Amino acid sequence: MNLKLHMVYKPYFKLCPGWLLLSCLLLTSVLQAEPSPNRVIIIGTKHNGNKMLTVKSMYNAIKRINPDLILMELDSTIISNCSINKVWGAQTAEWLGIWKNPIEYRAVRKYQKKNKQVCISPFDVYIPNRKTYIAYNRAMEKSHQETLSNVYQQGLLNSPESDEYEKYTEINTAFLQILDSSLLQMNRASLTDTIENILYKEKHFIRRLTLQFPALQPYGNWYNSQLDFWDERSAAINKKIWDQLNANSNKTIVIITGLLHKAEIENFLQKKEMASLCKLITLESALINPPVPDF
Question: Which of 31, 55, 64, 166 is most buried when burial is the number of CB atoms within 10 A of its CB?
């Protein structure tokens, strides 16, 4: 009797391991089909820093969050294979003040040196001669703003235009003051509305004034091309961030970007279709209670 029972149940026991394996594969397939959202913290920054926003303060914030992945507003010529490309003598040149790399570049480089497991990835588009491009546009922006101010002071704007320009100047001045504050103040949730307001006025009201008044028309082509490039760049940035979120699951991801880009990235990540890929966490919350994996 015992022998018969053994003969009857022997095939059953042989099938068990295969059934368990199939169950595991099905469970793995389900988990892969429905990944856990990544925990995303966007850090808006002023690239050249200020008295309160330093390499040390940026490094300490990143260290506190302890991310798995850091996405930076740089391109693939600067970051590759999950690391910032090494440049011989860079740190000496920075110390001597010869090479003024962004504070986030230096902070992240320092962080990865002590945390080799973290991956760093670029999300910006390639801009030829980036430093020359930035210097040229800063000079043009300054000249354009000065000319616009002269048009206003000369009384060439009508009453509604003057009121609108005064509002723009007020919020722009407040924004520039925030750029001299700490990392936490710079990343207050309420600042998103201010940034969106500035960008909207520049894309519509300031563009119209630039094309309308003779004194500003020499800036017309430059201003239009900059606004168009901003939109193209924002779309490319969002696509690269989406690619990284889609390639990862249940990771803590820090996105470091210039403060003006933060609002558009934030709005993109808050879309309903992004809910399965990411959960946004404010910088303040992340520093008080660093995100932990969901098991």
Answer: 55
What phi-psi label fits residue 34: left (phi over 0), alpha (psi between -120 and 50 degrees) or beta? beta
Please identify which residue in the block is written with the tokens 């429905």. 34
HSE value, Cβ hemisphere, 13 Å, CA-based, for 136: 11
Contact 140, 229 (CB under 8 A): no
pTM here?
A: 0.84
At 257-291, the pLDDT tens digits run: 999 999 999 999 999 999 999 999 999 999 987 77
Among residues 265, 285, 295, the alpha carbon closest in space to that of 65 is found at 285
Question: What is the C-alpha separation between 231 and 72, in angstroms, rounded?
Answer: 18
Distance CA 57, CA 45 (A): 11
Burial environment of residue 61 by CB neighbours within 10 A (0 to 12, 13 to 18, 19 or more): buried
Residues 21-58 pLDDT 10s: 444 444 444 444 566 899 999 999 999 999 999 999 99
Is the CB of residue 41 less than 8 Å from the CB of residue 254? yes
3-state secondary structure of 165: helix
Count Cβ atoms within 10 A of the Cβ of residue 88 and give its class: 0-12 exposed, 13-18 middle, 19 or more buried.
Answer: exposed
- Whole-angstrom distance, CA of residue 206 vs CA of residue 161: 10
